[in-house]
Amino acid sequence: MTKPRTIIEKIWDAHVVNEQPGAPALLYIDLHLVHEVTSPQAFQGLRERGIKVRRPDLTVATADHSIPTTDRSLPILDNIGKFQLDELDRNCRDFGVRCYGIHSDKQGIVHVIGPELGLTQPGMTVVCGDSHTATHGAFGALAFGIGTSQVEHVLATQCLLQRKSKTFQVRVDGALKPGVTAKDIILGLIAKIGIGGGTGCVFEYTGSAIRALGMEQRMTVCNMSIEGGARAGLIAPDDLTFQYLHGRPHAPKGAAWESAVARWKQLATDAGASYDREVSIDADQLEPMITYGTNPGMGVAINAPLPDPSQIADPAQRESMIQALRYMDLEGGKPLLGRPVNVVFIGSCTNSRISDLRSAASILKGRKVNPNVRVMVVPGSQAVKREAEAEGLPEIFRAAGCDWREPGCSMCIAMNGDQLEPGQYSVSTSNRNFEGRQGKGGRTFLASPLTAAAAALTGVVTDVRTLL
Amino acid sequence: MKPFTNFSSRMVVLPVNNIDTDQIIPARFLKITTKEGLDKHLFQDWRYDESGQPKPDFVLNLPRARGCEILLAGDNFGCGSSREHAPWALTQFGFRAVISTSFADIFRGNSLKNSLLPITIPAEAHAELLAAVAKDPEAQVAVDLPAQKLTLPNGRAVEFPIDEFSKHCLIEGVDELGYILKREAAIREFEMRHDPGIDTLAG
Hints:
The complex is a heterodimer of chains A (468) and B (203).
Chain A: H1 7-15, E1 16-18, E2 25-28, E3 31-34, H2 40-49, E4 59-62, H3 79-95, E5 98-100, H4 110-116, E6 125-128, E7 142-145, H5 148-157, E8 159-162, E9 166-173, H6 182-193, E10 201-206, H7 208-211, H8 215-223, E11 232-234, H9 239-245, H10 254-264, E12 277-282, E13 289-291, E14 299-301, H11 315-328, E15 343-346, H12 354-364, E16 374-377, H13 382-391, H14 393-400, E17 403-404, E18 425-428, E19 443-446, H15 449-458
Parallel strand pairs in A: 3-4, 3-6, 4-5, 6-7, 9-10, 9-12, 10-11, 15-16, 15-18, 16-17, 18-19
Antiparallel strand pairs in A: 1-2, 2-8, 13-14
Helix pairs in contact in A: 2-5, 6-8, 12-14, 12-15
Chain B: E1 7-9, E2 11-14, H1 21-24, H2 44-47, E3 70-73, H3 85-93, E4 97-100, H4 105-112, E5 117-120, H5 123-135, E6 141-144, E7 149-151, E8 157-159, H6 164-172, H7 176-181, H8 184-193
Parallel strand pairs in B: 2-3, 3-4, 4-5
Antiparallel strand pairs in B: 1-6, 6-7, 7-8
């Protein structure tokens, strides 16, 4: 009898090209996603060596990080950003790679368009020069972020030298209470294990609360695996996964669909397989979460007081907490509720899909945002934008006083001019609250689309359950 | 890649835990399409004030930072984004090694591909090193990669882990892509029996 394996090991085993003693395994990559920021130096490397992209048919590019989210018919004012976008077009043209550029109707955040085009499929290996590539793990794919050298390796050979990660089961059982979402699960996990807690590991999310999530919510959970230190995080595919994929442009068709589903059904972790590490979370106990500090592990239940540094025994941890609170200009021991905010950002590869926008709109419908708050709603892709328009969501957002914009990473990474002013506070549905992440001197509270929408209405950090 | 040779150096000390790549090189400097000029923006927002002037008390701005080839940092160094601009900026500034108790996975991999050695040492040795530099900012450590040994200022040698392959690539200056390209036959053979099942160029 063969040894029971986790889904992580099954995907790994199916992609090892070969292994030589004393070297990492050579791992085959099924899908390579490319964007403008981490690829130019890799394409340049290919030019210098005089080699081609080995599998343009397994490679796809889009522009997301540095593109403006303003009217696309306007010229791009940022010359350096424009040059980078032009370089992506030129590189893709020269190397025969499909590029959904700034004027494409399929443009969007790379981790939004992969799934929506049906490119991301169960059992695949997926890479991108972006740490949030784990998003694609929601489909039962082994998906992880790589640096630019490795982008070049994959462009040239479709392979990576890779070492097997440890397996880490994150079990979430129970049922979420009203007002508690997928975002709160992942923020709760990271608060529990810390931002280095999953270093060297791949998460497999299991349990009844994970099974109960829709595909877009599963993407939200997997997306932030890296914020817990894990390069990848995945969820075994099930009927919901297959329903989502069925009929998507790049999903298998006809007889190929049937055989693909049969194959995908074999991916789930075998009974009796063991993990290197495990953690459990009780979904019933979760509250809406919010971060208060300068890394995603610094999160609390929205109605809980912030940690008091004087109560932290470890000197290094205490110092980190003091510095974070100083940067955020917050006081330990007090709750965040009622804290005024300047900006609300609804978007990013974590929370910019149609269900995220519907979730925010459900709170904002028929209400007005607080006049002191600037609210930006940035759909994850052109397809999401069209779907939202067909449902009348932009009208709800605009009537409430929000700014409805063009798709891109926007204020999650603040490369394109969408940014906080020094000292401003945002409630953001994105994934990172590092110092200056949303603009130099800006201060970020990470939360769900529901919590973000609540803050937009009241102008202060608010428990959304008071508005449901 | 330039072969990695043994060296001794003074250290720049930044004893902050969880230094993320957004601090090492903020995203607004990632709009370049080459690798050059990133050293100017290394730790930009910690290093310069509102008017763009160097903050005199920030460690990289101290005269003794000049010529330092080692950064001594806190736990979980390099967490966050996958930007390889972080090791590019560090090596352009002159660093050849970073010492910490732990490193984030992607940063560690990116560093090894750029001749930047991530040296992981136990917490007690890390504390000892911090104390030694606090006492004598001119204190030096010696890095011996073949022996996987870091010699502290008091002469005590601390072993650090590194996998054999990465060590070999650093010491010999192996071009990793060249190494993968040599396995073309194995890749071709794998492709005969493995169908990813998509065509991004279709439709």
